[in-house]
């Protein structure tokens, strides 16, 4: 049955759908949403949508954006995706200062902690590095080219993060692996020394995030297609704790929708002073909150926050010490949608510190559209439209499409013996797949 | 396991060596495709009792008192071991070192497995330190070995992959050397040899460029008993010698990183 599903997708050549993404400025100045080739930024201080200007002389995004991130200092932002472009933006005021062309589609992007470098990973698992900002005179050197600094062997890198202490760059891939690489003083010469591999996921790793005890040691969190959230000592590559979201599956879904394959972790996000992990799960309309105790090195279930039935977040963002969680749902390339109307829904979930202790009875819930800061103005800017909630059918279609797309891209193909032989016979290595 | 049928070449417990003609396989295998054989999730998950029963008795895990002497770890890896000639040659030279061959082609792996069992059966007390595993070492090296575990890695007569488009399929590359450096202890030695000049130049230049490896001096290479085996012990090496072909070696040592 699994088999036929995969084959069908191959035959019909289903378009790839990219999930909508959200990123929050580290000091709360702004919030960015990407859907398809569309980048939407809202200035939370000025209370207005940001119009993005482009000084880089490069082309604008023309295909789905797959990764967005703010630099640790908040002054830089990067967007990258299927159009093989990496665009580096200054955030105050917002303008694109650099457009880097990649040889392959880009699947992950990150800034080094000092903001000097932007790293991006392509679909072949190669990580490239390029100077991020402008020089002292505000110029971007035109002749600089990205340098490949290391790679995962022909595997899609799904997530890439720098450790808060700046010592490591961590990369997760669809082959169940997380590689932790020392980030050298002169990284343009390559990052060849591997600190550890974090091995334990039994499916693709979809997301990673660093956390740290205030002023103390750093840890790594990861989520994957195996429905597990894992806590790692990334220096030694030791798995410290695993939380399987299926353990609380009863609280997740109605009995008729408990299908394991649908419980892949989509995204994780640290919030509330790194004490909590918000987890977005495929098929869960809402979020799961886990307590992350870095002293005891334990992950434990806190509760599930429900949203309306058709809202299943595709991406999460939060400033780590603030209990305000930005969630977004949407997808690119949906049929019957023009770019300007790419359907996106944004929801904000306030979390109080007391949620950590409170029983499941204490309810956090997504803010109603009328309670959102800056109200309609913000929603209009980030969602593209206001009537998103009325389009349940479209949302359902978005969901289904995303599931297939994620499955196609990340889950290891599993063919029957017979089908494998058939494929071998029909193989044509010279054919250029795209 | 008690009886092996004639169809798979015999060998095994009977002590007769398997015959290669029953294990014909394509010369190449695509390292990029998703694999369909079991891979250990991590080195802890790699069941050594199947491979080295003398060192890892199967019932040991059940006792779990943790008091017994720690069994040795695998120290040598022959990546793309083919029909296992090198392993068989190395086994008596380093009787107390565990070594493993890694091979992607399943039939060839089966052959080596039978060959090792046959050798063990006809030479009791010997060949207990060699084994073979079917895997894609380009994708899964860190799933088998811990950091700094290996002291020798061998890459003998690997696929040349001439076309530039296919260079990323080469088993020695700047990217993969990072992983080999990770699983090798400082001082460990990586041995490469090929009869294809272009590939020989490529492998040497990758190793020269990589900051975690340095060339082993000529004097040391001359007295290293392993080096002779590179061209004489393997089936590929013998074939090259029969045809009077030239070989190209690159032998490098894992060093620790010098930060300027």
TrEMBL record, chain A:
Statement: the UniProt record of this protein carries the keyword tRNA processing: yes
Subcellular location field: Nucleus
Pathway given in the UniProt record: tRNA modification; N(7)-methylguanine-tRNA biosynthesis
InterPro entries with a match to the protein in the record: Trm82 (IPR028884), WD40/YVTN_repeat-like_dom_sf (IPR015943), WD40_repeat_dom_sf (IPR036322), WD40_rpt (IPR001680)
Pfam families, sorted: WD40
WD repeat segments: 58-90, 198-233
Family label: Belongs to the WD repeat TRM82 family.
Record has Lipid biosynthesis as a keyword: no
Protein name: tRNA (guanine-N(7)-)-methyltransferase non-catalytic subunit
Any one of the GO BP annotations: tRNA (guanine-N7)-methylation
Organism: Lolium multiflorum (Italian ryegrass)
PANTHER family on file: TRNA (GUANINE-N(7)-)-METHYLTRANSFERASE NON-CATALYTIC SUBUNIT WDR4, WD40 REPEAT PROTEIN 4
Function: Required for the formation of N(7)-methylguanine at position 46 (m7G46) in tRNA. In the complex, it is required to stabilize and induce conformational changes of the catalytic subunit.
TrEMBL record, chain B:
Alphabetically ordered keywords of this record: Methyltransferase, Nucleus, RNA-binding, S-adenosyl-L-methionine, Transferase, tRNA processing, tRNA-binding
UniProt-recorded Gene Ontology molecular function terms: tRNA (guanine(46)-N7)-methyltransferase activity; tRNA binding
Domain of life: Eukaryota
Biased composition (Basic residues): 17-27
InterPro entries: SAM-dependent_MTases_sf (IPR029063), Trm8_euk (IPR025763), tRNA_(Gua-N-7)_MeTrfase_Trmb (IPR003358)
Enzyme Commission number: 2.1.1.33
Predominant cellular place of this UniProt entry's protein: nucleus
One Gene Ontology cellular component annotation held by this UniProt entry: tRNA methyltransferase complex
Binding site for S-adenosyl-L-methionine: 80, 103-104, 136-137, 156, 234-236
CDD domains: AdoMet_MTases (cd02440)
Pathway in which this enzyme or protein is active: tRNA modification; N(7)-methylguanine-tRNA biosynthesis
Protein name as catalogued: tRNA (guanine-N(7)-)-methyltransferase
Lineage of producing organism: Eukaryota, Viridiplantae, Streptophyta, Embryophyta, Tracheophyta
